[in-house]
Amino acid sequence: MADLTGSIAVFGATSGIARAVALRLAGEGASLVLIGRDGAGLEALAALASLARDSSGAKDGGPGISCVTWDVLDFGGHAESFRALTAAHTMKGVFFAVGTQFPQDECEKDPAKARLTFDTNLTGPVVILDLFAAYFRGRGGGFISCISSVAGERGRGKVLTYAASKAGLTAYLAGLRHRLAGTGVFVQTLKPGFVRTRLTAGMESPLMAEPAPVARDIVRALAARREEVYIPGIWKWIMLIIRNIPAPIFRRMKL
Fold first, then answer.
1. Which of 71, 106, 226, 251 is the most exposed place for a label (fewest CB within 10 A)?
2. Separation between Cα atoms, residue 45 and residue 34, nearest integer Å
């Protein structure tokens, strides 16, 4: 990254995609604040990210790599956690990669799992990203890059609850981008398909992507300031077809 005057917050840093993105950014010389619930995991990732950053030749170009323990479900603590973060670091961007998914039948049988899906995938991100949006707006610049999902493009019975939460997140990011137009704040929506992570454990698909090339595509899209990004790119055309299947036909399909 060319701009080393501030830090990038990476939420959900120990998850598959965020971990790969963090290492990619560090390898390009970025300063990072790794954020998540697993303190030990964050420290282990920080050691790897520091090595990658040192190898980039940018070890003296910014504040380096640090860790913050922060739970997206700790709604009562978000404001204070944000104040502490911005008091300690000048932030230039946030990469948000927090999410969860339960089998649909479990969400229907257990309302707590349905609520947890929405709190993790939508409500928590909205509360936290609103704080970053106000901060960047006040500074006259910054970026918000957030992982949603192709699942949010059209409701499907097999993943009804998960898809609905991601549809809400995609709509929120589009609205945030509209609200921040002209402020210097860049808002990016990332829409990955199947990526081999803990979230997709046990799933197999010929379209399954690996985290490393996904991270490469994300960092390139961020550098190019692309607002809506399908990853891998073939999903743009797959979802174009799926969105345009007539409803009577779609209802008979086992997607």
1. 251
2. 8
pLDDT in tens, 204-217: 666 667 888 889 99
Main-chain dihedrals φ then ψ at residue 146, nearest 5 degrees = -135, 135
1 falls within a domain: no
In this prediction, residue 208 carries a pLDDT of 64
The CATH number of the domain holding residue 86 is 3.40.50.720
What domain range includes position 113?
A: 7-250
Query: Which two structure tokens, joined as six digits, stand for 39?
Result: 């303190």
**Degrees (nearest 5) of the Cα angle 233, 216, 37?**
110
**Helix 78-88 to helix 124-139 angle, to the nearest 10 degrees?**
40
Number of domains making up the chain: 1
What global pTM score does this model have? 0.91
